[in-house]
Amino acid sequence: MTTFDQILPITTEVLADHSDKIAQLEWLVINRDLNGRVRFIAPEQSPEDEARHADVKAVYQVLSERLAPHAYPVDAGMLYEANLELACQGASHYALNGFDNVRVVDRLATEANWARIAPETDGAPRIVFFSIKGGVGRSTALAATAWSLAQAGKRVLVLDLDLESPGLSSALLPPERQPMYGITDWLVEDLVDNGGAVFDDMVATSNLSHDGEIHVVPAHGSEHGEYIAKLGRVWMPKIQADGTRETWADRLGRLLQALEARVQPDVVLIDSRSGIDEIASACITDMGANLILLFALEGEQTWNGYRMLFEQWQRAHVAEQIRERLKIVGAIVPELDRVIYLEGLRENAYSIFVDTLYDEIAPADPAAIGPTAGGDGKWRVDDLVEGWNFDEADEGAPHYPWAVNWHRSFAGLRSLQGRLASIDAQEVQAVFGTLIGGVRDAIDSRSAS
């Protein structure tokens, strides 16, 4: 009896055994429906060519028998469309390993699409704070980063997109400054073309702003109202007047563009929900993020989660589109044995990056490189090694963690607002300095380019 995880390996094997027949097709779609059953979708002209039609049908017959119960009987398992675009119907798809003309399409109950990576935004840098598991101090780190950037004169736009566990705004805004509405209100009102009614009252300026500004867009407003009822509707797609369908992630992107046009920020900080769900998918893959901070605690739960995510990008052939934007953040690094803890974190992160995202080419050994490599008296790995890879000890590598040290003064969001209002900059530096410095460098390098 076949299980879901065996579908693609068996499909690849069966198609390889009949590669001569598959090669005759312009394209072929392996369609996995909501129940995890497979169909073939082939060019509609196939039935007109009886021999070719019989060949494809014969291949599906073999596959259906191998995949049972994850396939249909032959008569129900063969579909035809005029072109590949119609066959995919807007769903995410990727090439089956070893076959340039075969695409895999997954029909999902949700619109989370980890395999579609939006290009980086050209405007103000968008930085996403994300974690596989909650309780890692991600939102606290974002608040401290926003505070520090504002201290340095930056205009910061902060979005609380942890919609199912909101709270970031309380760290940056006292109760009397909370706006009337939030992101959830806009997403619901937008469904009935009423987003404009709440847009002007969903952004507030933090009292923590000094030389710069912190503009906060909360998950909900000062009066949350029927928040649970609204939350169940934010994921809805919108059917436009011309009949086109706009996904909730695209609606969210439209809101972000409108907020950027209004605030004109120097940087956008986005607090994503933890886990692999709709919100996280939109924040990481759909918002054009320039830097994605992956908060990590040392432990199997963290690394198993990131491995699953990285393997999905690898499987969908989109790893190269996102891997250079990633950076591991060592969350809540303990006071005792910090060096040992960070070494373990780095080793485990490196192992996963090597297995999934880095190219399979080891970096050159600097000791073996002459002093004139590159013609300028300096050695550069790029001069000598093809592929995208890093040494484990390379501090600039995505796997090398930026440390956020544990400190009792920053142990809770509820008390953070008052804490930041009177905090000493040196204390922030001691806890969040590496993270804040890395974010500043990312902003400055983007401005320079």
User: What overall geometry do the principal axes of the alpha carbons give?
Assistant: globular
CATH architecture of the largest domain: 3-Layer(aba) Sandwich
Helix tally equals: 18
Q: Would you tell me the structural class of the helices and strands?
A: alpha/beta
Biggest pleated sheet: 8 strands, mixed
Q: Mean pLDDT, rounded to whole units? A: 87
Task: Give a quick set of tags describing it.
alpha/beta, five-stranded mixed sheet, 2 domains, 18 helices, 449 residues, Rossmann fold
How does this structure look, described?
The chain has 449 residues and is α/β, with parallel strands linked by helices. The chain has two domains: 4-106, no CATH class; 126-357 and 398-448, P-loop containing nucleotide triphosphate hydrolases (Rossmann fold, 3-Layer(aba) Sandwich). Helix content is 39%, strand content 16%. The chain has 18 helices and 15 strands. The protein has helices at 7-17, 19-22, 50-67, 74-77, 84-88, 138-151, 168-172, 183-190, 196-199, 227-231, 248-263, 278-286, 300-315, 319-322, 338-356, 381-384, 416-421, 425-448, and strands spanning 28-32, 38-43, 78-81, 93-95, 102-106, 126-131, 155-161, 204-205, 213-217, 238-239, 245-246, 267-272, 291-296, 326-333, 402-405. The strands form three sheets. It has an eight-stranded mixed sheet, with helices on both faces. It has a five-stranded mixed sheet with strand order 3-2-1-5-4. Strand 1 (28-32) and strand 2 form a beta hairpin. Helix 13 (300-315) packs parallel to helix 15. The longest helix is centred in the C-terminal third of the chain and has 24 residues, at 425-448. It is globular. The termini are far apart.
